Amino acid sequence: MADLTLDTPLTAVVGDRTAKVLADSLKLRTVGDLLHHYPRRYAERGQLTSLDDLEIDEHVTVLARIEKVTLIPFKGRKGDRLEVVVTDGRGRLSLVFFNQGWRQKDLRPGAQGLFAGKVGQFNRTRQLVSPDYQLMDEEADTSAAAEFAGRLIPVYPASAKAQTWTVGLCVRTVLDTLADDGWQGVGEPLPAELREKHGLIPLPEALELIHRPRSHADRERAQSRLRWDEAFVLQVALAQRRAADSALPAVPRPERAGGLLEAFDARLPFTLTDGQRQVSAEIFADLATSHPMHRLLQGEVGSGKTLVALRAMLTVVDAGGQAVLLAPTEVLAQQHHRSIVEMMGDLAEGGMLGGADAATKVVLLTGSMGTPARRQTLLDMACGDAGIAIGTHALIEDKVQFQDLGLVVVDEQHRFGVEQRDALRAKGEQPPHLLVMTATPIPRTVAMTVFGDLETSVLDQLPAGRSPISTHVVPALEKPNFLARAWERVREEVGKGHQAYVVCPRIGDEEQSDPKKKRKAMPDDPEDLGAGSDDRRPPLAVVETAEMLAKGPLAGLRIEILHGRLQPDAKDDVMRRFAAGRVDVLVATTVIEVGVNVPNSTAMVIMDADRFGVSQLHQLRGRVGRGSAPGLCLLVSDMPGASPARARLDAVAGTLDGFELSRIDLEQRREGDVLGQAQSGVKSSLKVLSVLEDEEVITTARAEAAALVAVDPRLEDHPDLRAALAGLLDEDRAEYLEKG
């Protein structure tokens, strides 16, 4: 076929029927999609696939040798069952075919082949029922045998309708067609000097060797090149974004002596950590420039990110501008407002009786505010009286205006859509400075890739006076007395005058318990996990757990509930009373995950802890130990000791290092998509590049991309790179980077 390119639809190469199967089951629609659908692993002749580790209900493709074939007629009725036992020399697997005795002609003892199907179990024996297979009989002198002899056998990510050998056959057809055409339809996104400098093979050779390697060395050379493609093209996109941001105008907001910041610092009852001083200096330097700051502020739970952000906001107010803090939930927005007003004291009472000379107004805007209060807040922001505004999505509405918006602080970026952040940034006459805070520590390479268009500041030093948190796993089924002891520990903490959290994965009110009723998730109810899709019991719920505790192990204590579907006034009332010490135990969903600061809380019991992610558990744990008394976090789980879920919990219990836990979390989630899979719903862009393991490649690619974009920002001299960038950044992804 002439003029075959990476954009050519697969229908033109493999036919309509096969192309439809590939598109429907594997989302492969073009030649490029297929060629970048790399083998998941490689089987080797003579090195049979291990059958010992197969899990029930897993879809597998195994390379094995036929050991025994038996045809068993049904008793008393027509039909038969063909049983084929295959082995890898250590384990065995049964293949079962009903009324297909004719397969004995193919399936002979001694033959070797690939067998694919879903692992089931019958009479304690693992089996595949009516599996698909492709034989590679040593004795058969066929082209198929020659194809496989002495080569690695690619095993592709497959589906029930598109087996690995179907994918492999289509790949071979495409590769042969491209080779016959001299690979004219495959561009070369990496500049020649870069390939030479880093010892990388050309792209056509890499595509050939990733699909048809003759040795492991071939495979490694191909993967090395393809890793560079993914890292470099992505870093070019981010470098272009940084360059475009640097070219935008912004109002400089330099520090000013004798202003709000100086007065605020003088009143602090503690000394800033070295980390807080260093990060503040980085932020102040950015704010003083004439192009918008784009900075990511990340750090450990309790490292003082909010204080650093507040000092940045005060600097902007000193320079004549306004600052907003955008929080993902009303509970967190109210908490931020309350704590910032308390920290500032009369410095937050601008225009009010008793306000300090340099004071400004600090206002709160949420969707549940009454009309008079809302109208006054909107007026304060529009006329400039409010130097600092704190709120939820309500800040983004069209009617919200600012006199001179100079800084946008986004707390917990991952909970906001791209359009929402962009709408807030657009409220300044010139682009405001942007500070993104995340309480989830991110490994350096992940930050460099996910937030590659942001400069990164890290707070990894906890303020003085923070107490240690001890974490323990409570195996509720194996050792029910441990759970009883957990409730005793809660009573002991309350007896000392402290308070406790009990966290559940589900709300459990009537609406949720009725499966016929479907609801739209509320913005501040992000973690109601529902009943789940597995065969386990439904997750424990706030409402039922609170009732159980009040009648049982915590009877007599003051117990309240908090979740996202409570009315805003009720949520605020509960949090105020809990913060004031008038509630002993707060039973809540993950609405308390970030930002909630009650120093008197010393104990947390997380029910069904295995249903939460590693980083989320670390965030929740950070709500205790915030005062002078040590914190205690108990992770309750029904999962057995040898399960992966328990291994996750053991990892959380074993370290307080959020950066290490984030690595574990990412490894378990297989990293996902760095270009905002959650934002746009698109498939992952990373096939061979690991943002955790390929730090050197990512770092080097970032430097090379920055150098190239500095010389050729529009990539006019690199058309193939420009095309690769267009392929990586579809419309959704381009918008994600443009606005993010």
Automatic annotation (TrEMBL):
Domain Helicase C-terminal: 482-667
SMART domains to which the protein is assigned, alphabetical: DEXDc, HELICc
Keywords assigned: ATP-binding, DNA damage, DNA repair, DNA-binding, Helicase, Hydrolase, Nucleotide-binding
Organism superkingdom: Bacteria
GO molecular function: DNA helicase activity; hydrolase activity
Pfam family, one: DEAD
Cross-referenced InterPro entries: DEAD/DEAH_box_helicase_dom, Helicase_ATP-bd, Helicase_C-like, NA-bd_OB-fold, P-loop_NTPase, RecG/Mfd, RecG_dom3_C, RecG_wedge
Segments forming domain Helicase ATP-binding: 286-459
Positions of the UniProt region annotated as Disordered: 504-538
Name of the protein described by the UniProt record: Probable DNA 3'-5' helicase RecG
Organism from which the protein derives: Kitasatospora herbaricolor
Chain's gene name: recG
